[in-house]
Protein backbone atom coordinates (compact mmCIF):
# COMPACT_ATOMS: atom_id res chain seq x y z
CA UNK A 1 0.00 0.00 0.00
CA UNK A 2 2.76 2.45 0.98
CA UNK A 3 4.74 1.69 -2.19
CA UNK A 4 1.64 2.23 -4.31
CA UNK A 5 1.05 5.63 -2.67
CA UNK A 6 4.71 6.53 -3.15
CA UNK A 7 4.62 5.54 -6.79
CA UNK A 8 1.49 7.62 -7.39
CA UNK A 9 3.09 10.61 -5.71
CA UNK A 10 6.24 10.26 -7.84
CA UNK A 11 4.12 10.10 -10.99
CA UNK A 12 2.22 13.18 -9.83
CA UNK A 13 5.52 14.97 -9.19
CA UNK A 14 6.82 14.07 -12.67
CA UNK A 15 3.63 15.38 -14.24
CA UNK A 16 3.91 18.54 -12.17
CA UNK A 17 7.46 19.19 -13.37
CA UNK A 18 6.36 18.57 -16.96
CA UNK A 19 3.63 21.14 -16.43
CA UNK A 20 6.14 23.58 -15.00
CA UNK A 21 8.37 23.07 -18.01
CA UNK A 22 5.42 23.91 -20.23
CA UNK A 23 4.66 26.86 -17.96
CA UNK A 24 8.15 28.19 -18.43
CA UNK A 25 7.77 27.95 -22.19
CA UNK A 26 4.38 29.71 -22.19
CA UNK A 27 4.24 33.48 -22.73
CA UNK A 28 3.86 35.17 -19.34
CA UNK A 29 3.52 38.71 -20.56
CA UNK A 30 2.58 40.61 -23.64
CA UNK A 31 4.63 40.07 -26.75
CA UNK A 32 8.17 41.26 -26.05
CA UNK A 33 8.50 42.91 -29.46
CA UNK A 34 5.63 45.29 -28.67
CA UNK A 35 6.75 46.16 -25.12
CA UNK A 36 8.18 49.61 -24.44
CA UNK A 37 10.43 49.95 -21.39
CA UNK A 38 11.22 53.15 -19.56
CA UNK A 39 14.30 55.06 -20.63
CA UNK A 40 14.55 57.62 -17.83
CA UNK A 41 13.29 58.21 -14.33
CA UNK A 42 13.14 60.86 -11.66
CA UNK A 43 11.49 61.56 -8.33
CA UNK A 44 9.64 64.43 -6.74
CA UNK A 45 7.42 65.38 -3.87
CA UNK A 46 3.66 65.03 -4.07
CA UNK A 47 3.31 68.82 -4.05
CA UNK A 48 5.41 69.30 -7.20
CA UNK A 49 3.51 70.08 -10.39
CA UNK A 50 3.73 67.14 -12.77
CA UNK A 51 4.02 69.30 -15.90
CA UNK A 52 6.89 71.24 -14.34
CA UNK A 53 8.77 68.06 -13.40
CA UNK A 54 8.21 66.56 -16.85
CA UNK A 55 9.51 69.72 -18.51
CA UNK A 56 12.73 69.81 -16.49
CA UNK A 57 15.33 67.80 -18.47
CA UNK A 58 18.00 68.15 -15.81
CA UNK A 59 15.98 66.19 -13.26
CA UNK A 60 15.83 62.99 -15.30
CA UNK A 61 18.26 60.11 -14.90
CA UNK A 62 18.64 58.04 -18.06
CA UNK A 63 20.64 55.02 -19.17
CA UNK A 64 20.75 52.06 -16.77
CA UNK A 65 19.10 53.60 -13.70
CA UNK A 66 19.16 52.39 -10.13
CA UNK A 67 15.71 53.19 -8.83
CA UNK A 68 15.14 54.74 -5.43
CA UNK A 69 12.04 55.12 -3.29
CA UNK A 70 13.35 58.16 -1.37
CA UNK A 71 11.03 60.58 -3.15
CA UNK A 72 7.30 60.63 -2.48
CA UNK A 73 6.62 60.32 -6.19
CA UNK A 74 8.59 58.30 -8.75
CA UNK A 75 8.26 59.15 -12.45
CA UNK A 76 9.15 56.95 -15.43
CA UNK A 77 9.48 58.21 -18.98
CA UNK A 78 8.77 56.01 -21.98
CA UNK A 79 9.87 57.07 -25.48
CA UNK A 80 7.43 56.28 -28.32
CA UNK A 81 9.32 55.63 -31.56
CA UNK A 82 7.84 56.05 -35.03
CA UNK A 83 7.98 52.30 -35.64
CA UNK A 84 6.58 51.25 -32.26
CA UNK A 85 3.17 49.69 -31.98
CA UNK A 86 1.07 52.26 -30.17
CA UNK A 87 0.68 51.26 -26.52
CA UNK A 88 -2.69 51.33 -24.79
CA UNK A 89 -1.84 50.16 -21.29
CA UNK A 90 0.73 50.51 -18.56
CA UNK A 91 1.65 47.26 -16.83
CA UNK A 92 3.67 46.92 -13.65
CA UNK A 93 4.17 44.59 -10.71
CA UNK A 94 1.63 44.86 -7.92
CA UNK A 95 2.73 46.51 -4.69
CA UNK A 96 1.21 49.05 -2.37
CA UNK A 97 1.02 52.62 -3.72
CA UNK A 98 -1.31 55.62 -3.41
CA UNK A 99 -2.08 56.56 -7.02
CA UNK A 100 -0.86 56.42 -10.62
CA UNK A 101 -0.80 59.40 -12.99
CA UNK A 102 -0.40 58.80 -16.74
CA UNK A 103 0.58 61.53 -19.20
CA UNK A 104 0.72 61.26 -22.98
CA UNK A 105 2.90 64.02 -24.50
CA UNK A 106 2.76 64.84 -28.21
CA UNK A 107 5.54 66.27 -30.31
CA UNK A 108 3.99 69.74 -30.21
CA UNK A 109 3.90 69.73 -26.40
CA UNK A 110 0.21 68.84 -26.08
CA UNK A 111 -0.36 66.79 -22.94
CA UNK A 112 -3.18 64.45 -21.92
CA UNK A 113 -3.42 63.10 -18.39
CA UNK A 114 -5.42 60.52 -16.45
CA UNK A 115 -5.08 59.62 -12.79
CA UNK A 116 -6.14 56.47 -10.96
CA UNK A 117 -6.18 55.86 -7.24
CA UNK A 118 -4.75 52.58 -6.00
CA UNK A 119 -8.22 51.13 -5.43
CA UNK A 120 -9.15 51.81 -9.07
CA UNK A 121 -6.25 49.84 -10.55
CA UNK A 122 -7.43 46.62 -12.20
CA UNK A 123 -5.44 43.40 -12.24
CA UNK A 124 -3.75 42.20 -15.40
CA UNK A 125 -4.00 38.68 -16.78
CA UNK A 126 -0.24 38.51 -16.60
CA UNK A 127 0.29 37.09 -13.11
CA UNK A 128 1.33 39.57 -10.42
CA UNK A 129 0.78 42.69 -12.55
CA UNK A 130 -1.71 45.55 -12.56
CA UNK A 131 -2.67 47.56 -15.59
CA UNK A 132 -3.81 51.11 -16.27
CA UNK A 133 -5.29 52.47 -19.49
CA UNK A 134 -3.20 55.24 -21.04
CA UNK A 135 -4.73 58.54 -22.16
CA UNK A 136 -5.14 58.69 -25.92
CA UNK A 137 -1.83 57.73 -27.53
CA UNK A 138 -1.55 58.73 -31.21
CA UNK A 139 1.14 58.83 -33.88
CA UNK A 140 1.93 62.31 -32.67
CA UNK A 141 2.70 61.05 -29.17
CA UNK A 142 6.41 61.10 -28.43
CA UNK A 143 6.51 60.31 -24.72
CA UNK A 144 4.44 58.71 -22.02
CA UNK A 145 5.23 59.66 -18.43
CA UNK A 146 3.96 57.58 -15.54
CA UNK A 147 4.05 58.93 -11.99
CA UNK A 148 3.65 56.59 -9.00
CA UNK A 149 2.56 58.23 -5.76
CA UNK A 150 4.15 56.60 -2.67
CA UNK A 151 5.47 53.47 -4.39
CA UNK A 152 6.47 50.85 -1.80
CA UNK A 153 8.62 48.45 -3.84
CA UNK A 154 11.38 48.97 -6.41
CA UNK A 155 9.90 46.17 -8.53
CA UNK A 156 6.95 48.43 -9.41
CA UNK A 157 9.44 50.75 -11.13
CA UNK A 158 11.76 48.08 -12.51
CA UNK A 159 9.05 45.95 -14.12
CA UNK A 160 6.91 48.73 -15.61
CA UNK A 161 6.29 48.60 -19.36
CA UNK A 162 3.82 49.82 -21.98
CA UNK A 163 1.99 47.41 -24.25
CA UNK A 164 -0.81 47.61 -26.83
CA UNK A 165 -3.03 45.13 -24.95
CA UNK A 166 -3.36 42.81 -22.02
CA UNK A 167 -2.75 39.12 -22.66
CA UNK A 168 -5.24 37.97 -25.24
CA UNK A 169 -7.44 35.09 -24.14
CA UNK A 170 -6.08 32.97 -26.97
CA UNK A 171 -4.67 29.44 -27.22
CA UNK A 172 -1.37 30.27 -25.51
CA UNK A 173 -2.97 31.98 -22.51
CA UNK A 174 -5.63 29.28 -22.23
CA UNK A 175 -2.89 26.64 -22.25
CA UNK A 176 -0.99 28.57 -19.55
CA UNK A 177 -4.09 28.91 -17.36
CA UNK A 178 -5.11 25.27 -17.87
CA UNK A 179 -1.64 24.12 -16.85
CA UNK A 180 -1.84 26.29 -13.74
CA UNK A 181 -5.33 25.01 -12.93
CA UNK A 182 -4.20 21.40 -13.38
CA UNK A 183 -1.18 22.12 -11.17
CA UNK A 184 -3.43 23.55 -8.47
CA UNK A 185 -5.74 20.55 -8.76
CA UNK A 186 -2.83 18.13 -8.53
CA UNK A 187 -1.39 19.88 -5.50
CA UNK A 188 -4.84 19.66 -3.88
CA UNK A 189 -4.60 15.88 -3.79
CA UNK A 190 -2.49 15.85 -0.60
CA UNK A 191 -5.44 17.47 1.18
CA UNK A 192 -7.46 14.30 0.49
CA UNK A 193 -4.63 12.11 1.81
CA UNK A 194 -4.33 14.34 4.89
CA UNK A 195 -8.05 14.03 5.61
CA UNK A 196 -7.69 10.24 5.52
CA UNK A 197 -4.48 10.27 7.60
CA UNK A 198 -5.91 12.57 10.26
CA UNK A 199 -8.89 10.32 10.87
CA UNK A 200 -6.40 7.64 11.90
CA UNK A 201 -3.43 9.54 13.31
CA UNK A 202 -4.92 12.64 14.96
CA UNK A 203 -1.44 14.13 14.75
CA UNK A 204 -1.05 17.96 14.58
CA UNK A 205 1.52 17.81 11.77
CA UNK A 206 -1.21 16.52 9.42
CA UNK A 207 -3.26 19.67 10.07
CA UNK A 208 -0.23 21.93 9.62
CA UNK A 209 0.66 20.18 6.37
CA UNK A 210 -2.89 20.81 5.15
CA UNK A 211 -2.57 24.47 6.14
CA UNK A 212 0.77 24.70 4.34
CA UNK A 213 -0.65 23.11 1.21
CA UNK A 214 -3.67 25.44 1.23
CA UNK A 215 -1.49 28.53 1.70
CA UNK A 216 0.81 27.53 -1.18
CA UNK A 217 -2.18 26.85 -3.40
CA UNK A 218 -3.58 30.28 -2.53
CA UNK A 219 -0.18 31.81 -3.32
CA UNK A 220 -0.22 30.25 -6.79
CA UNK A 221 -3.82 31.40 -7.23
CA UNK A 222 -3.27 35.05 -6.32
CA UNK A 223 0.18 35.41 -7.93
CA UNK A 224 -0.90 34.01 -11.30
CA UNK A 225 -3.65 35.00 -13.72
CA UNK A 226 -6.05 32.40 -12.32
CA UNK A 227 -7.47 34.75 -9.68
CA UNK A 228 -8.13 37.39 -12.35
CA UNK A 229 -9.93 34.94 -14.62
CA UNK A 230 -11.97 33.45 -11.78
CA UNK A 231 -12.72 36.49 -9.58
CA UNK A 232 -11.11 39.61 -11.13
CA UNK A 233 -10.35 41.33 -7.79
CA UNK A 234 -8.72 44.79 -7.73
CA UNK A 235 -4.95 44.79 -8.03
CA UNK A 236 -4.32 46.21 -4.55
CA UNK A 237 -6.58 43.55 -3.01
CA UNK A 238 -4.42 40.86 -4.59
CA UNK A 239 -1.32 42.76 -3.45
CA UNK A 240 -2.13 42.67 0.28
CA UNK A 241 -3.55 39.14 -0.06
CA UNK A 242 -0.23 37.99 -1.54
CA UNK A 243 1.64 39.51 1.40
CA UNK A 244 -0.60 37.95 4.06
CA UNK A 245 -0.70 34.55 2.36
CA UNK A 246 3.10 34.55 2.11
CA UNK A 247 3.31 35.05 5.86
CA UNK A 248 0.75 32.30 6.36
CA UNK A 249 2.82 29.94 4.18
CA UNK A 250 5.98 30.62 6.18
CA UNK A 251 4.13 30.25 9.49
CA UNK A 252 2.47 26.99 8.41
CA UNK A 253 5.82 25.69 7.16
CA UNK A 254 7.46 26.48 10.49
CA UNK A 255 4.69 24.83 12.49
CA UNK A 256 4.69 21.81 10.19
CA UNK A 257 8.44 21.36 10.59
CA UNK A 258 8.15 21.84 14.36
CA UNK A 259 5.48 19.14 14.72
CA UNK A 260 6.67 16.82 11.92
CA UNK A 261 10.25 16.17 13.05
CA UNK A 262 10.20 13.17 15.38
CA UNK A 263 10.50 13.74 19.15
CA UNK A 264 14.13 13.80 20.25
CA UNK A 265 15.38 14.42 16.69
CA UNK A 266 15.64 18.23 16.99
CA UNK A 267 17.16 20.43 19.67
CA UNK A 268 14.42 21.82 21.94
CA UNK A 269 15.67 25.39 21.43
CA UNK A 270 15.27 25.05 17.65
CA UNK A 271 11.80 23.57 18.07
CA UNK A 272 10.80 26.58 20.18
CA UNK A 273 12.49 28.92 17.69
CA UNK A 274 10.27 27.56 14.91
CA UNK A 275 7.23 28.56 16.97
CA UNK A 276 8.66 32.07 17.26
CA UNK A 277 9.32 32.06 13.48
CA UNK A 278 5.68 31.27 12.79
CA UNK A 279 4.47 34.13 14.98
CA UNK A 280 7.13 36.46 13.53
CA UNK A 281 6.16 35.69 9.92
CA UNK A 282 2.46 36.34 10.59
CA UNK A 283 3.26 39.59 12.42
CA UNK A 284 5.56 40.83 9.64
CA UNK A 285 3.16 40.04 6.81
CA UNK A 286 0.08 41.36 8.54
CA UNK A 287 1.82 44.58 9.59
CA UNK A 288 3.37 45.11 6.15
CA UNK A 289 0.01 44.57 4.43
CA UNK A 290 -1.91 46.77 6.90
CA UNK A 291 0.49 49.74 7.06
CA UNK A 292 2.72 49.66 3.93
CA UNK A 293 3.69 53.37 4.03
CA UNK A 294 5.01 53.81 7.60
CA UNK A 295 8.66 53.38 6.60
CA UNK A 296 7.97 53.36 2.88
CA UNK A 297 11.45 54.14 1.43
CA UNK A 298 13.02 51.20 3.27
CA UNK A 299 10.01 49.24 4.51
CA UNK A 300 10.01 46.62 1.73
CA UNK A 301 13.76 46.13 2.16
CA UNK A 302 13.44 45.76 5.92
CA UNK A 303 10.42 43.47 5.49
CA UNK A 304 12.39 41.22 3.16
CA UNK A 305 15.49 41.28 5.37
CA UNK A 306 13.40 40.40 8.44
CA UNK A 307 12.81 36.94 6.97
CA UNK A 308 16.55 36.17 6.92
CA UNK A 309 16.52 34.78 10.51
CA UNK A 310 13.54 32.61 9.58
CA UNK A 311 15.46 31.05 6.68
CA UNK A 312 18.50 30.51 8.93
CA UNK A 313 16.41 28.80 11.62
CA UNK A 314 14.70 26.62 9.01
CA UNK A 315 18.08 25.51 7.67
CA UNK A 316 19.52 24.92 11.15
CA UNK A 317 16.46 22.93 12.18
CA UNK A 318 16.61 20.61 9.18
CA UNK A 319 20.40 20.19 9.44
CA UNK A 320 20.15 19.45 13.18
CA UNK A 321 17.36 16.95 12.59
CA UNK A 322 19.37 15.22 9.86
CA UNK A 323 22.41 15.09 12.15
CA UNK A 324 20.27 13.44 14.82
CA UNK A 325 19.04 10.79 12.39
CA UNK A 326 15.56 12.14 11.60
CA UNK A 327 13.87 10.28 8.79
CA UNK A 328 11.23 13.01 8.37
CA UNK A 329 13.92 15.66 7.88
CA UNK A 330 15.18 13.89 4.74
CA UNK A 331 11.87 14.53 3.01
CA UNK A 332 11.81 18.13 4.19
CA UNK A 333 15.39 18.77 3.09
CA UNK A 334 14.57 17.75 -0.49
CA UNK A 335 11.17 19.47 -0.50
CA UNK A 336 12.40 22.80 0.86
CA UNK A 337 15.49 23.26 -1.32
CA UNK A 338 13.82 25.06 -4.30
CA UNK A 339 11.53 27.19 -2.13
CA UNK A 340 14.44 28.24 0.12
CA UNK A 341 16.47 29.08 -2.99
CA UNK A 342 13.57 31.24 -4.22
CA UNK A 343 13.50 32.91 -0.80
CA UNK A 344 17.25 33.57 -0.95
CA UNK A 345 16.92 35.10 -4.43
CA UNK A 346 14.13 37.37 -3.20
CA UNK A 347 16.11 38.24 -0.08
CA UNK A 348 19.33 39.05 -1.93
CA UNK A 349 17.75 41.10 -4.72
CA UNK A 350 15.41 42.83 -2.30
CA UNK A 351 18.16 43.95 0.07
CA UNK A 352 21.07 44.78 -2.27
CA UNK A 353 20.22 48.14 -3.93
CA UNK A 354 22.15 47.66 -7.19
CA UNK A 355 20.59 44.27 -7.95
CA UNK A 356 17.27 44.33 -9.84
CA UNK A 357 14.46 42.85 -7.76
CA UNK A 358 13.59 39.28 -8.68
CA UNK A 359 10.67 37.35 -7.18
CA UNK A 360 11.86 34.08 -8.84
CA UNK A 361 8.28 33.03 -9.53
CA UNK A 362 9.09 30.01 -11.71
CA UNK A 363 11.53 28.75 -9.06
CA UNK A 364 8.84 29.46 -6.48
CA UNK A 365 6.32 27.35 -8.43
CA UNK A 366 8.89 24.54 -8.61
CA UNK A 367 9.40 24.95 -4.86
CA UNK A 368 5.66 24.69 -4.23
CA UNK A 369 5.50 21.42 -6.17
CA UNK A 370 8.58 19.98 -4.45
CA UNK A 371 7.51 21.10 -0.99
CA UNK A 372 3.96 19.76 -1.23
CA UNK A 373 4.82 16.48 -2.91
CA UNK A 374 7.93 15.58 -0.92
CA UNK A 375 6.39 16.54 2.39
CA UNK A 376 3.31 14.54 1.39
CA UNK A 377 5.62 11.57 0.86
CA UNK A 378 7.12 12.35 4.25
CA UNK A 379 3.67 12.45 5.86
CA UNK A 380 2.81 9.11 4.24
CA UNK A 381 6.11 7.65 5.45
CA UNK A 382 5.55 9.03 8.94
CA UNK A 383 2.03 7.64 8.86
CA UNK A 384 3.37 4.18 8.08
CA UNK A 385 6.04 4.54 10.79
CA UNK A 386 3.52 5.59 13.43
CA UNK A 387 1.13 2.88 12.26
CA UNK A 388 3.87 0.26 12.62
CA UNK A 389 4.73 1.61 16.07
CA UNK A 390 1.10 1.54 17.15
CA UNK A 391 0.57 -1.91 15.70
CA UNK A 392 3.68 -3.10 17.52
CA UNK A 393 2.42 -1.49 20.73
CA UNK A 394 -0.93 -3.23 20.29
CA UNK A 395 0.79 -6.55 19.66
CA UNK A 396 2.94 -6.08 22.75
CA UNK A 397 -0.13 -5.08 24.76
CA UNK A 398 -1.97 -8.16 23.48
CA UNK A 399 1.01 -10.32 24.37
CA UNK A 400 1.17 -8.81 27.85
CA UNK A 401 -2.58 -9.27 28.19
CA UNK A 402 -2.29 -12.90 27.17
CA UNK A 403 0.66 -13.40 29.51
CA UNK A 404 -1.32 -11.88 32.36
CA UNK A 405 -4.03 -14.47 31.69
CA UNK A 406 -1.61 -17.42 31.62
CA UNK A 407 -0.21 -19.46 34.47
CA UNK A 408 3.57 -19.15 34.05
CA UNK A 409 4.27 -22.68 35.34
CA UNK A 410 1.80 -24.79 33.36
CA UNK A 411 0.91 -22.45 30.49
CA UNK A 412 -2.79 -22.91 31.23
CA UNK A 413 -5.19 -19.98 31.49
CA UNK A 414 -5.50 -18.57 35.01
CA UNK A 415 -8.26 -17.27 37.28
CA UNK A 416 -8.08 -13.78 35.74
CA UNK A 417 -8.74 -15.23 32.28
CA UNK A 418 -11.81 -17.17 33.34
CA UNK A 419 -13.28 -14.30 35.35
CA UNK A 420 -12.80 -11.70 32.63
CA UNK A 421 -13.95 -13.90 29.75
CA UNK A 422 -16.62 -16.06 31.38
CA UNK A 423 -19.53 -14.24 29.70
CA UNK A 424 -17.92 -14.81 26.31
CA UNK A 425 -17.22 -18.46 27.08
CA UNK A 426 -20.84 -18.95 28.17
CA UNK A 427 -22.10 -17.22 25.00
CA UNK A 428 -19.96 -19.67 23.00
CA UNK A 429 -21.74 -22.63 24.65
CA UNK A 430 -19.40 -23.55 27.52
CA UNK A 431 -22.05 -24.38 30.15
CA UNK A 432 -20.27 -27.25 31.97
CA UNK A 433 -17.67 -26.62 34.66
CA UNK A 434 -15.37 -29.15 36.33
CA UNK A 435 -13.20 -28.30 39.36
CA UNK A 436 -10.28 -30.74 39.94
CA UNK A 437 -7.86 -31.06 42.83
CA UNK A 438 -4.83 -33.36 42.97
CA UNK A 439 -5.08 -35.87 45.83
CA UNK A 440 -2.39 -35.77 48.54
CA UNK A 441 -0.34 -33.25 46.55
CA UNK A 442 1.13 -31.78 49.74
CA UNK A 443 2.75 -35.15 50.40
CA UNK A 444 4.45 -35.01 46.99
CA UNK A 445 5.99 -31.64 47.87
CA UNK A 446 6.98 -32.74 51.34
CA UNK A 447 8.61 -36.02 50.23
CA UNK A 448 10.08 -35.13 46.85
CA UNK A 449 10.45 -31.35 47.00
CA UNK A 450 8.88 -28.44 45.14
CA UNK A 451 10.82 -29.05 41.93
CA UNK A 452 9.19 -32.47 41.58
CA UNK A 453 5.89 -30.94 42.68
CA UNK A 454 6.13 -28.39 39.85
CA UNK A 455 6.83 -31.23 37.39
CA UNK A 456 3.70 -33.03 38.63
CA UNK A 457 1.62 -29.87 38.09
CA UNK A 458 2.99 -29.51 34.54
CA UNK A 459 2.20 -33.14 33.74
CA UNK A 460 -1.32 -32.78 35.19
CA UNK A 461 -1.87 -29.69 33.01
CA UNK A 462 -0.78 -31.74 29.99
CA UNK A 463 -3.38 -34.39 30.87
CA UNK A 464 -6.05 -31.69 30.96
CA UNK A 465 -5.15 -30.57 27.45
CA UNK A 466 -7.47 -28.00 25.87
CA UNK A 467 -9.24 -28.54 22.55
CA UNK A 468 -12.02 -26.69 20.64
CA UNK A 469 -14.58 -28.10 23.12
CA UNK A 470 -12.57 -27.69 26.33
CA UNK A 471 -10.78 -24.78 28.06
CA UNK A 472 -8.35 -25.68 30.86
CA UNK A 473 -7.39 -23.36 33.73
CA UNK A 474 -5.13 -23.49 36.77
CA UNK A 475 -6.65 -21.51 39.62
CA UNK A 476 -3.70 -21.88 41.97
CA UNK A 477 -1.84 -24.58 43.88
CA UNK A 478 -3.05 -28.00 42.74
CA UNK A 479 -6.53 -26.80 41.73
CA UNK A 480 -7.64 -26.87 38.08
CA UNK A 481 -10.87 -25.93 36.27
CA UNK A 482 -12.29 -27.18 32.98
CA UNK A 483 -14.95 -25.37 30.96
CA UNK A 484 -16.62 -27.72 28.49
CA UNK A 485 -19.36 -27.68 25.87
CA UNK A 486 -21.20 -30.34 23.92
CA UNK A 487 -23.36 -33.31 24.83
CA UNK A 488 -20.42 -35.47 25.97
CA UNK A 489 -18.92 -32.78 28.23
CA UNK A 490 -19.09 -35.08 31.28
CA UNK A 491 -17.29 -37.90 29.49
CA UNK A 492 -14.51 -35.63 28.21
CA UNK A 493 -13.97 -34.20 31.69
CA UNK A 494 -13.84 -37.68 33.21
CA UNK A 495 -11.38 -38.98 30.61
CA UNK A 496 -9.03 -36.10 31.42
CA UNK A 497 -9.30 -36.75 35.19
CA UNK A 498 -8.56 -40.44 34.72
CA UNK A 499 -5.59 -39.66 32.40
CA UNK A 500 -3.74 -37.74 35.10
CA UNK A 501 -2.11 -40.75 36.92
CA UNK A 502 -0.68 -42.24 33.71
CA UNK A 503 0.57 -38.94 32.31
CA UNK A 504 2.17 -37.94 35.62
CA UNK A 505 3.81 -41.38 36.10
CA UNK A 506 5.27 -41.20 32.60
CA UNK A 507 6.54 -37.64 33.04
CA UNK A 508 7.71 -37.89 36.68
CA UNK A 509 8.93 -41.44 37.46
CA UNK A 510 9.90 -42.58 40.94
CA UNK A 511 7.03 -41.05 42.88
CA UNK A 512 6.25 -44.35 44.58
CA UNK A 513 2.48 -44.00 44.24
CA UNK A 514 0.10 -42.74 41.54
CA UNK A 515 -1.06 -39.12 41.55
CA UNK A 516 -4.86 -39.05 41.31
CA UNK A 517 -7.42 -36.25 41.23
CA UNK A 518 -10.89 -35.65 42.62
CA UNK A 519 -13.44 -33.65 40.60
CA UNK A 520 -16.70 -31.79 41.09
CA UNK A 521 -18.80 -31.39 37.93
CA UNK A 522 -21.88 -29.28 37.25
CA UNK A 523 -23.47 -27.19 34.55
CA UNK A 524 -26.00 -24.44 33.98
CA UNK A 525 -29.02 -24.19 31.75
CA UNK A 526 -28.27 -22.69 28.32
CA UNK A 527 -30.82 -20.00 29.13
CA UNK A 528 -29.56 -19.26 32.65
CA UNK A 529 -27.54 -16.17 33.41
CA UNK A 530 -25.60 -17.71 36.25
CA UNK A 531 -22.35 -15.93 37.15
CA UNK A 532 -19.06 -17.78 37.31
CA UNK A 533 -18.80 -17.45 41.10
CA UNK A 534 -22.07 -19.28 41.70
CA UNK A 535 -21.32 -22.03 39.21
CA UNK A 536 -17.82 -22.44 40.64
CA UNK A 537 -19.16 -22.60 44.19
CA UNK A 538 -21.50 -25.47 43.26
CA UNK A 539 -18.72 -27.40 41.55
CA UNK A 540 -16.35 -26.76 44.47
CA UNK A 541 -18.88 -28.20 46.94
CA UNK A 542 -19.14 -31.30 44.73
CA UNK A 543 -15.35 -31.55 44.72
CA UNK A 544 -15.33 -31.37 48.52
CA UNK A 545 -17.93 -34.14 48.55
CA UNK A 546 -15.71 -36.28 46.33
CA UNK A 547 -12.78 -35.71 48.70
CA UNK A 548 -14.86 -36.78 51.71
CA UNK A 549 -16.03 -39.89 49.84
CA UNK A 550 -12.47 -41.18 49.52
CA UNK A 551 -10.82 -39.12 46.73
CA UNK A 552 -9.97 -40.23 43.20
CA UNK A 553 -13.59 -39.87 42.12
CA UNK A 554 -16.12 -37.47 40.64
CA UNK A 555 -19.28 -35.98 42.08
CA UNK A 556 -21.63 -34.45 39.52
CA UNK A 557 -24.83 -32.46 39.61
CA UNK A 558 -26.11 -31.90 36.10
CA UNK A 559 -29.13 -29.86 34.97
CA UNK A 560 -31.35 -32.12 32.83
CA UNK A 561 -33.53 -29.25 31.57
CA UNK A 562 -35.28 -26.10 32.65
CA UNK A 563 -38.20 -24.58 30.76
CA UNK A 564 -41.17 -22.36 31.58
CA UNK A 565 -39.87 -21.70 35.06
CA UNK A 566 -39.98 -25.41 36.13
CA UNK A 567 -37.35 -26.17 38.74
CA UNK A 568 -34.36 -28.06 37.29
CA UNK A 569 -33.84 -31.73 38.00
CA UNK A 570 -30.31 -32.73 39.12
CA UNK A 571 -28.54 -36.05 38.74
CA UNK A 572 -25.77 -36.87 41.21
CA UNK A 573 -23.23 -39.60 40.72
CA UNK A 574 -19.73 -40.73 41.58
CA UNK A 575 -17.02 -42.27 39.45
CA UNK A 576 -13.95 -43.93 40.90
UniProtKB/TrEMBL annotation:
Q: Does the keyword Signal apply?
A: yes
Q: Which residues cross the membrane?
A: 173-193, 205-231, 237-261, 273-295, 301-322, 334-355, 361-380
**Cross-referenced Pfam families, in alphabetical order?**
7TMR-DISM_7TM, GGDEF
Q: What is its EC number?
A: 2.7.7.65
NCBIfam families xrefs: GGDEF (TIGR00254)
Keyword Oxidoreductase on entry: no
Give the matching SMART domains. GGDEF
Highest taxon listed in the record's lineage: Bacteria
Say which enzyme class the record assigns: transferase
Signal peptide start-end:
1-24
Q: Which PANTHER family match?
A: DIGUANYLATE CYCLASE DGCM-RELATED (PTHR45138:SF9), REGULATORY COMPONENTS OF SENSORY TRANSDUCTION SYSTEM (PTHR45138)
Domain (GGDEF): give its ranges: 429-559
GO terms (molecular function) for this protein are: diguanylate cyclase activity
Task: List the protein's name.
Answer: diguanylate cyclase
Identify the stretch(es) annotated as Disordered.
555-576
Write out the entry's keywords from A to Z.
Membrane, Signal, Transmembrane, Transmembrane helix
Write out the catalysed reaction. 2 GTP = 3',3'-c-di-GMP + 2 diphosphate
Amino acid sequence: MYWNDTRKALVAMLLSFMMLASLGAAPFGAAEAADIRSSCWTSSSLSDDLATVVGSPGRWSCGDPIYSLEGERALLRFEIGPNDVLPRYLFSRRSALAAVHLLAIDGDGAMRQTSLSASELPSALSGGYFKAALPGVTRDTRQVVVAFDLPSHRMTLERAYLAPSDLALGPDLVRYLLILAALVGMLSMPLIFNAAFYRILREPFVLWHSMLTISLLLTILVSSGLAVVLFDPPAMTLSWMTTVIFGLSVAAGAMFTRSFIEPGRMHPHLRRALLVCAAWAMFLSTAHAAVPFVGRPVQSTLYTAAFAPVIVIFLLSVVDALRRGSRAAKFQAVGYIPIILAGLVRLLTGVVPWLPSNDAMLLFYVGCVCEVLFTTLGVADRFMTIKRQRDQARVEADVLERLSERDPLTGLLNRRAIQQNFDRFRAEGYHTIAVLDLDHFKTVNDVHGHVVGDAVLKASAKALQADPQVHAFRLGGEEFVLLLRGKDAQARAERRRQAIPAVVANAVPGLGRPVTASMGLTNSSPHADEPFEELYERADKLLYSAKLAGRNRTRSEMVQGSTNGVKPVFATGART
